[in-house]
# Entry
Amino acid sequence: MSTTLNLDSKIPEGGIDEKWSNYLFNHKLVNPSNRRKFDIIVVGTGLAGAAAAATLGEQGYNVKVFTYHDSPRRAHSIAAQGGINAAKNYKNDGDSVFRLFYDTVKGGDYRSREANVHRLAEVSVNIIDQCAAAGVPFAREYGGLLDNRSFGGAQVSRTFYARGQTGQQLLLGAYQALARQIGSGPVELHNRSELLDVVVMDGAARGVIVRDMITGEISAHSAHAVVLATGGYCNVYYLATMAKMCNVTAAWRAHRKGAAFANPCFTQIHPTCIPQSDEFQSKLTLMSESLRNDGRIWVPKNPDDTRAADQIPEDERDYYLERIYPSFGNLAPRDVSSRAAKRAVDAGQGVGPLKNGVYLDFADAIGRLGENVVRDRYSNLFDMYANITGENPYKTPMRIYPAPHYAMGGLWVDYELQTTIPGLFAAGEANFSDHGANRLGASALMQGLADGYFVLPNTISSYLAPLLSTTPVSTDEPAFAEAISGVEDRVNQLVSIGGTKGPDHFHRELGRIMWNECGMARNENGLQKAISEIGAIEEEFYKDLRIPGSRYEYNQTLEKAMRVVDFFELGKTMCQDALDREESCGGHFREEYQTDEGEAARRDDLFSYVSAYSYEGQGEAPKLHKEHLNYEYVKPTTRSYK
Amino acid sequence: MNLTLKVWRQESPDAAGRFETYDAPGIKDDMSFLEMLDVVNERLIEAGDEPITFESDCREGICGTCGLMINGRAHGPVKGAAACQLHMRVFNDGDMITIEPWRAAGFPVIKDCAVDRQAFDRIVESGGYISAPTGAAPDANLQLIPKDAADAAMDAAACIGCGACVAACPNSAAQLFTSAKVQHLALLPQGQAERYSRVKNMVDTMESFFGSCTNHGECEEACPKEISIDFIAMMNRDYVSAMGKNRKLAGQHM
Amino acid sequence: MRRPEPPRRAPRKMYPWPLNLYQTAVGKKWVMALTGLGLIGFVLAHMAGNLKLYMGAEDIFDYGEFLKEMGSPLIPKTHLLWILRAGLLTMFVLHIHSAYSLTRLNAASNPKANPTGQKRYEGGQEFAAANFASRSMRWTGVIIALYVIFHLLDLTWGATSDGWVKTDHYNNIVDSFQRVPVAIIYIVANVALAIHIFHGAWSMFQSLGLTSPMWNHIRRYVAYGVSAAILIGNVSFPVAVLLGIVDHVEPTYLEEASALLALI
Ligand SMILES: Cc1cc2nc3c(=O)[nH]c(=O)nc-3n(C[C@H](O)[C@H](O)[C@H](O)COP(=O)(O)OP(=O)(O)OC[C@H]3O[C@@H](n4cnc5c(N)ncnc54)[C@H](O)[C@@H]3O)c2cc1C
Ligand code: HEM
Ligand code: HEM
Ligand code: SF4
Ligand code: F3S
Ligand code: FES
# Structure
């Protein structure tokens, strides 16, 4: 089987700042009184899913929303801390829609689509308005106006925030809008229901197969269109800052049914996380990047130095970021500072019991500003650190290390957020669309809400309008029966292996390989080795997995195993993509392609494309398709932070 | 360290349930409490037994998925922390730890230590929102919000919906959760139009599932976000005014 | 396995304002707090009146006469007193009824015994904020209710002794408290009352929604103060009688009063 894909991005006519309004004017509409004749399935209740489901419900569509959580409010978006960008220019510091667009394209290392990014920047201002109206308690100035801060090294203050809980507050805003629609009828909530397959019939998405996580019952649901807003896949690394249940199953099952998967190797590693403390660690915790505003990063010059941090004299410390990147110093972008930390640890200069971290030292800041000012600024982060590590960061420097944090890759979508399967849409972190090879801080929340509140509810009508007077396919159709029995088989196969180990064991192994070979730095040998090692573990998994209990009950072991199955395949495709992309850009660093100073060497002449993979069958290598990227408004330059 | 766990096991909502005792040797200080349970579970699986069902997701105290009664304290002995933020270093070698689910009629047990908290969603669906359909919003800076008011709203909005307040409350009252949501919105100018209908509907829904508050204050102690029971007082006042309010005049006070 | 559903009480048909207030738990609690506040007012005033015990028998007698004459000549004698008594009775009834019905609601919302043991939590719930007073409101409340019945029989209707004289409050009290078991009943009941109010006088601020960062810190002290005043004041009477500080006197004022009456 060799798939051909139509990767038409459907970018509208006109100048970059006219495309979205042109689109809105030209696309097909569904008359308000006809909307109730359409059924839409939304999977996921994170920022993207909750906002989309709520808005579609408000517009009058019949919406069924699915989540594997017990409540929509628990989606992983809840954990975002730092903030959300918007080109409001409330600070009068020269921000504009164009600048946000420019920064995002440049920050993405020129691997995103200009038209999508410009639309994102345009609607960013509406997001803030919408959220404030919905009661999101953004931080305020004393005069009552909204406060902003500069985030992730941006040159302007365009980040809106709600204490250290911005994601929580934005998600609660969207959840509340969704709850209103659930309470009043247009939206039907299916909680604790995990999507296990997408049903495609006659070339279009017709519905989904879900497992009720309590009864274990597998059921089919059909609709005119299906939206996947199922989040990112960084848990392929096992240890990541993602919530434990985040997984790739929904996107992966769509991929297997024909949706192209784009840029899988573009994952972001966040520089300031608390290092792993032992082999039983279940996840990594992010410490807000804002710490880098006042903390200084260093490692001992001598790899064999065993002294406590405060015993090491100044001239025996290597403040490597300040040394290599004098103008940005400790504020160097995420990918740059993550890799610098890796170099130090790989050179044996790591600190802490496992020598797996670098110091983030506040001694200077405390000396300069006094402990009280530092406490004012960061007390909650310091407390969090102290709680997790049992160390007092006012006295000893924090230890930090990079950790997987965000997946830029995802389902390939066109300008309308439609995947290569007609009628199947992807929104939020689940799609690949706006961040290229590297996401700027505070832009994921923006994208999730842009997709959910403003983009998808408009673009989906283009697909639906011609379907007026059709009814959704009956779930009695053979395509549904086939999908159900496929899922049943998968479940039965797993529960009947009867081996000796739980799914976490295999997941941990997979994560270790992915992190070592397809993490912060990659090379050809390692990637090839990884692909075969993953194959080996996968094989062992199918021989030695044990799932106690029945499939007709709340069975968390079974859930995990179902997710790990898809992570294996994703992992291999990620490595495949990393192999193909013989350049270094954004979150993807190929050791073979670096400058003499060890910086990423992008190869625009060869790799200025989106890699979209089609699934070629179990055990087969995925097939690469390319969507070429054109930069008319932001001309590619080399990022330099020296 | 070596521990003994006494854990509530219940196969299904209708099963009787019982305590089982497990040995948990070789637990490290810097493990989190849930990682300790992960280890116990992996050993159970390897020994051919069913692992203990407990829920968690973010493991950093923000999603509200986790929730365990640990030695008679909701979310365990550390104040202002969810169960997932609890670390083993607060326990000692040889300790016996009792682990139970939240118990309240409004939170039926699903399995072992996992309970169903849908009642909270029903409360929010009955009014815990501002009706602001997408697209209709004016510029965000049109409406000034004094910093103190925004901060107070944020204090209330910090609730993670974990249910510890109900679990800890001797009356199984959900007053702290409900008041946090009601007051988050009632303290903001945007929330004024629906202020009285909201509090009326949400409190009525709350009362259809949960007990009534006798001001024990236990909820605030158990709350991982340390939400203040002042919000309960504010909600009570709003509720009683809502009963007798001439809502036709509501526009005069906004 | 089945999906559990939280049991939900059906909504009730609501009566018009103000009756609807008493149909919901928060409304009932508000009524309980208002009646509790009124009862505190009564207990404090009653105690203030009884403090005249230390000023002599005549003072008390005069005070009793004043109560009857309150409001006259605007309205006939004792009418205002009866109005106040009716108010007091209503407060007791509402307070007790709301306490009873909320207690039932709470019991229904709270699977008190987990299926194996008697306790809700096998680990033994460790309370961090709830105190003895807050957890014993129902019991202290019942003690007070029983006490009030006894007290009325004892001092208002004279059913517990032969020496009782309708208007000789002073000697009625002294005679009654000189019986040690009775004095003990009074002491125990008033300690219970003080405990009840220790929580109640704080709790009512919450129930009534009287909260403000300006004076919230004072609310606890108000509760300390009121309950301490009642504890000290009311317990002092039986103690003073037992110690002989307050002793039986010849009720000459009774004759004076009847002489006066005879004159009119
Ligand atoms: C620790 C942390 C901090 C962050 N901080 C920031 C920040 O400061 N600023 C910023 O802009 N971004 C931040 N991000 C990134 C950002 O939070 C996420 O990218 C974004 O919230 C993703 O939203 P989403 O709606 O796409 O998906 P999610 O919020 O992940 O939601 C996914 C939803 O899909 C459902 N789902 C998934 N699979 C299935 C299935 N098979 N069946 C049924 N349901 C399914 C889940 O139940 C869930 O409801 C942070 C991320 C992390 C991890
Ligand atoms: C003179 C007598 C009494 C006084 C002064 C009094 C006072 C109070 C007050 C102030 C409250 C607090 C109300 C609130 O929190 O909103 C209260 C609560 C309560 N009272 Fe009384 N009360 C008296 C008698 C009784 C009696 C006779 C009973 C019951 C038989 C009773 C039972 C209760 C109960 C159960 C509560 C609720 C518990 C709580 O709020 O924590 N009280 N009382
Ligand atoms: C030790 C303290 C107390 C003393 C010495 C005392 C004494 C008295 C006396 C002398 C009377 C008048 C009897 C009469 O009508 O002839 C009385 C009436 C009454 N007392 Fe007390 N009392 C005490 C405490 C209380 C308390 C704590 C309560 C309530 C909780 C209470 C409730 C009443 C009531 C309801 C009446 C009847 C009032 C009336 O007839 O209008 N008393 N008391
Ligand atoms: S109020 Fe506190 S304890 Fe209750 S649900 Fe919210 S966060 Fe949890
Ligand atoms: S513990 Fe319960 S009684 Fe009220 S103050 Fe909290 S809800
Ligand atoms: S697991 Fe999210 S709050 Fe504990």
Notes: Chain B has a mean pLDDT of 95. DSSP finds eight helices and seven strands in chain B. The helical segments of chain B are 33-46, 118-125, 147-157, 164-168, 175-186, 195-209, 218-222, 230-243.
